[in-house]
Structure formats: C-alpha cells, structure tokens
Design brief:
By secondary structure, the chain is mainly beta. It folds into two domains: 312 residues, Beta-galactosidase, Chain A, domain 5; 136 residues. The chain contains four helices and 31 strands. The radius of gyration is 26 Å and the shape is elongated.
Length: 483
C-alpha cells in the first residue's frame, strides 16, 4: 500500500527545505543530499523519506518509514530501561513511540558541497543519556558492497551500491551521574516497497569493506512506468549481538497509514527479542523490516561510546524475457541517460547504469582498484564514464544509446567525431558509434556490458575562429603571388 500522489508531493516540498517540521510534529528535520539521492532526517536520526534525484524520476521513494533507532540500559542499581525509541513519533504509518528523548540541538546543516547539503549534526537527550548524531554523505567513488544472500546460505553474493552512502554516527554520553551498564543500541530499517529482508555478515572486498554486517532489503517499484528493482541496506563495522528480519505489519491486518503495526520487527525490538532470522520474504503478504542490536557494554559517568552505520542504495530497471528495451539513469534527454534494446533476454534480471564525470584522479583511482586499465585513447574534455551491468542472461546484440554532456567536451572538440570505447577482455575496444549532435547521443551495438567511455580515435579539434580568419586572409595573398 503506497502513499497517495498528494502525500508524495507534500513530502517532496518538505524535503526540499534545509530545516522543516512535519505537520503537527514539532520535531526538526533537515535534508542531506548528493547528486543521486536525498534523505530527510529528524534530530533523532529518524527518517521516513529517501528520494531519488535521477532526472525524470525525481521524488521516487526508497524509504517510507522507518529508519529508526532505540536504546536500552541500566543506571546504577535501578531496573533496566527497556528498549526506548529515540524518535517520538513515527510517520506513515503514524504512531507515537515510547521515546522520552528531547531535542537539545535541532538538526543543523554544517557543510555543503557543490550545491548539496552533505553534512549535519543534532543532539538529543533524556535524563540519562546525551546522544550526538553526525550525518555525512560520503563519496566512495566505486560504491560499497551490499550483501544480497543471507549469511546462513551456502554461498554469498553482493551488489555494488551507488557511489554515495550516508554515514550516520551516534555518540552516546552518560549524563546520569551513575555508571550505566548493559547499554544496547538498536537500528531498524523498513523500505517502502520492500519484499525481502536479509542479514549477511560475509566479508566482501571493496570500499568500506569493514562495514560488512549488512541488513539489505530488496524491493520492486512498478509505479513510475518502468519497473525498478531497488536495494537499500545498512551496515555496521561491529558485529551485532542479535538481528532480525521480519514483518512490519501485514496487508490483511494493517493499513500502513495510521496506527502502530500489529506485528513485526519493531515489537521485537521493544521486547528485546530479536530472534536471529536471516531472511524474510513478505511478498504479497506483509511489509518487511530488518534490525540489528549492538552491545555498547558499560559507560562510566560522563564517558562516551560511538557507533557508526552506513546506509546505501542501488536501483536497476527490471527486464523480462524476450526482446526488451527501455532507458536507465534518466528519462532520455538528460546527460548520463542510457537507452537500451536487448535482442533477446533469456533470463529476466535488472539492468544497472551509472554515469560518472571523472577527472584524471578519479580515472586513476578506478584503474588502481581494478575496474579497468587507464585509458590511452583521446578523451575530449572531461571523461564521461558509463558503467553498465545486467544480472540476468541474454543472447544476441544490445543496442545502446548514450546521452553525453556537450558542455564537458573541449571547447574546440568536434562532436561528430566522438566514439565509444568499451573495456572488455582486459582491454579498451573502439566501438565506433553513430553520433547525433542535435540530441547529443551516440549509438553502438555490443554483445557485452562493462565500462564505456566517450572518447575519440585522436585529437578532434576544430580550428579556432581566429585561425580560420588568418587562413582566410593568407590564401588570397598566396594566390595573388601566383598570378
């Protein structure tokens, strides 16, 4: 069950501001963002909305509640405080939690980069704990691994996330005046269209590889024309003492708009009863949620402990059997869009496309991390890198049309001479291409997918106007001398 169009538009307007409050909710919110996605977060580290920034699909939701945390602990010789949510009120479905925390410092943007608000901080507290929450959008360049196979399965598998990830750090300080023991921290995730939720603790190589205790949710979203396959995951660099993947209400008993879901992972957190379920499939029956519990042990008076989490996303376009076509990474007119036509998809899967604008340092970084060999062909202006993948199977050719950004070409480069280079079998191959200089596209056929770069077979400069003028004057002089 999804939000109405009105609700989505209303939340889009809210997420666009740097500091906001939901209707009838005094909690402060701010939006942290990167070129690919943005997330509205409360002072309590909570979010109900994470939105796509891809041209043509701006506002498509990954998250619909809940990204939320809770704590439990014991002060001195008193009774243990049962798991208590940080966020006072959850949104969609709307319900009031058992939180006794208050805002000390409302969430505030602390850093912006290239027009995106990338860093923020907030402080909350109750009578025993002060929690400082730092938020930072990190550019991993290559993405980080998101586990896609439950940790108890015979073999592991992972997918590379979008290059941008959110680091959310909670620094918990004991302000109770006594020793605190048994301090535990809980993190829960519920994706909007999630059908499956899993826990994977395998170690994979790549960026941020020490953050390998993953809770990953897989979702299908058919609501925007093409059907998308979404992944959303959070990971820690410390092993949880408990984890769970289960429901967040059922389709039969809950409406996912108002009221606390009648069954699910959130109740297991409140009962401190996460059961260690590695995988849950809620397709057609229930919403899904996953959680992890971390032991932060003992805190002396005024002592602090920090736990870091990484939140990542990934989106693909779902392809069915037979001839299949569509576009990825945009709606067809924006730089970075890839239009594709598969001759024959034999096993359904998802098509992934990432568009990266790479300076020399980024190309070198990617090459040094094994993505490809450093290009030796001519790159006009700034490199435009398309990384394409398909996790199904296909026969025959794929027709690809890349939309490039002419503003990134050299000032004297001739668009008509552009070509596509494809890294395949350990080397860059010149694929040629049909260039449309009006729409700034170049089309090729290929039978494999991997990195593609817009390049040329050699320097392709058009003579500068000043040079043409000189030549125009010189030519008649030479001709006159021949008379």
């Amino acid at each position: 069950m999804r939000r109405s169009r009105f609700a989505v538009l209303a939340m889009l307007a809210l997420a666009a501001t740097s500091s906001l409050a939901w209707a009838a909710d005094p909690t402060s919110y701010a939006s942290v963002s990167n070129p690919n996605w943005n997330m509205s977060l409360s002072s309590y580290g909570y979010s109900d909305i994470l939105l796509d920034n891809t041209p043509g699909f701006q506002g498509r939701e990954y998250l619909s509640g809940e990204w939320a945390a809770a704590v439990s602990y014991k002060v001195g010789n008193s009774n243990t405080t049962s798991p208590t949510w940080l966020q006072p009120d959850f949104i969609f479905p709307d319900w009031t939690t058992n939180s006794n925390f208050r805002e000390v410092t409302p969430i505030t943007i602390t850093q912006s980069n290239n027009g995106y608000d990338t860093h923020a901080v907030s402080v909350i507290e109750n009578s025993d704990l002060r929690i400082t929450i730092n938020y930072a959008m990190l550019d991993t360049v290559t993405g980080m691994k998101m586990g896609t196979s439950p940790g108890n399965a015979a073999t592991g598998s992972a997918i590379e996330s979008n290059r941008y990830v959110l680091q959310q750090s909670y620094t918990i300080t004991n302000i109770s005046g006594n020793e605190i023991t048994g301090l535990s921290f809980f993190q829960m995730l519920h994706g909007l269209n999630g059908e499956k939720s899993l826990y994977d603790n395998r170690l994979y190589t790549g960026a941020l590889s020490d953050y390998h205790y993953d809770t990953t949710q897989v979702a299908s979203d058919p609501s925007w024309g093409p059907s998308f396959k979404d992944y959303i995951s959070f990971a820690s660099n410390v092993a949880p003492v408990a984890f769970e993947n289960d429901m967040y209400g059922t389709f039969a008993d809950d409406n996912h708009a108002t009221g606390k879901p009648s069954i699910g992972t959130h109740l297991l957190i409140e009962d401190d009863a996460l059961g260690g379920k590695y995988f849950f499939n809620g397709t057609d029956t229930a919403w899904v949620a996953g959680a992890q519990k971390y032991s932060l042990a003992t805190l002396a008076e005024n002592a602090s402990r920090t736990i870091d989490l990484m939140l990542s996303v990934k989106t693909g376009t779902t392809l069915t059997e037979g001839a299949s076509e569509g576009n990825a990474n945009g709606d067809g007119g924006n730089p970075g869009c890839v239009t594709f036509q598969f001759e024959d998809v034999t096993t359904p899967g998802s098509f992934y496309a990432e568009y990266n604008i790479c300076d020399e340092d980024e190309l070198d970084y990617r090459a040094s991390h094994g993505e490809f060999e450093m290009p030796e062909f001519y790159i006009p202006g700034t490199a435009q890198l398309f990384e394409l993948d398909f996790d199904g199977e296909f026969d025959g050719a794929i027709t690809l049309t890349f939309t490039y950004d002419p503003a990134l070409l050299g000032s004297n480069d001739d668009e008509s001479l552009l070509r596509v280079f494809h890294f395949d079998d350990g080397q860059w191959k010149d694929m040629g291409g049909v260039v449309d200089t009006l729409n700034h596209t170049i089309t090729i056929e290929t039978e494999s997918l991997s990195p593609f770069v817009i390049g040329a077979s050699g320097p392709m400069s058009v003579p500068e106007p000043g040079t043409l003028a000189v030549l125009g004057l010189a030519l008649p002089l030479v001709m006159r001398r021949r008379r």
